[in-house]
Amino acid sequence: MKRLPEQLKRLMQYHKMNESTLARKINIPQPVINRLLSGSTSNPRVSTLLALAQYFNVSIEALIGEEHIPSEELAKFAHYIYIQNDRSLLEGTTPQQMMMSTTKYKNSFAYQVNHTLLEPRFSQGTLLIISPEKHHKHGDYMMIKKTGGIFIRQALILENSKTFLTVPAIQAMFEPLCENTIILGTVIESYQQHL
Predict the structure, then answer these.
(1) CA–CA separation, 151 vs 148, rounded Å?
(2) What is the mean pLDDT of residues 83-106?
(3) Average pLDDT of every residue of the chain
(4) Residue 169 Cα to chain centre, angstroms
(5) Do residues 52 and 61 lie in contact, with contact meaning Cβ atoms separated by under 8 Å?
(6) Do residues 170 and 119 lie in contact, with contact meaning Cβ atoms separated by under 8 Å?
(7) How confident is the model at residue 171 (pLDDT cuts 50, 70, 90)?
(8) Does 95 sit behind a cis peptide bond, omega within 30 degrees of 0 on the bond before it?
(9) Most CB within 10 Å of its CB: which of 33, 72, 145, 155?
(10) Burial, 33: exposed, middle or buried (Cβ in 10 Å; 0-12, 13-18, 19+)?
(11) CATH superfamily of 79-191
(12) Sign of CA dihedral 109, 129, 78, 11
């Protein structure tokens, strides 16, 4: 059931619908849909799962993440994104590798963490999906470019709306978001890879 929120979000994104539209289409109260999307409902009713599965034309097992959504269904809303590395990001070159993604942000790219500096949050080998389109909020992880390279930092937004960045492994170190810092995007997904 842990993957239900993720699967439901993907299906809703593909069908370009929000919570209230889905609630009306399947005749289930919107707060129920909201709880399913947030993951706060750990044991949804079978009738709710059945209505969702029938509407999206997938099995209940696929809906809750116990089996994959059939590839022909996935292909309908999947697209390719580039797998960037430090060199391609610094030089502005086009990477050679691509991967499939189902994120709604079409300009997203992937980045594989190749060091241990972001542990324990992102271990070496983690594949990050980064969106230049999504604006960062307090607590989001961002990819930035500045003198010295490419970095992942966590955004901390204070009461006066000023953004500071912190190194994930060293929470006590803060740096202001400066004019010479280029925000490449916000981390929207992460996938643990085993090296």
Answers:
(1) 9
(2) 81
(3) 81
(4) 21
(5) no
(6) no
(7) low
(8) no
(9) 33
(10) buried
(11) Umud Fragment, subunit A (2.10.109.10)
(12) negative
Tokens 């050679």 correspond to what residue? Answer: 96
Residue extents of the structural domains in the chain: 4-76, 79-191
**pLDDT band, residue 91 (cuts 50/70/90):** confident
**pLDDT greater than 90 at residue 31:** yes
The whole-angstrom separation of Cα 63 and Cα 51 is 11
Is the pLDDT assigned to residue 39 strictly greater than 70? Answer: yes
In CATH terms, 4-76 corresponds, of 1.10.260.40, 1.10.3720.10, 3.40.250.10, 1.20.140.10, to: 1.10.260.40
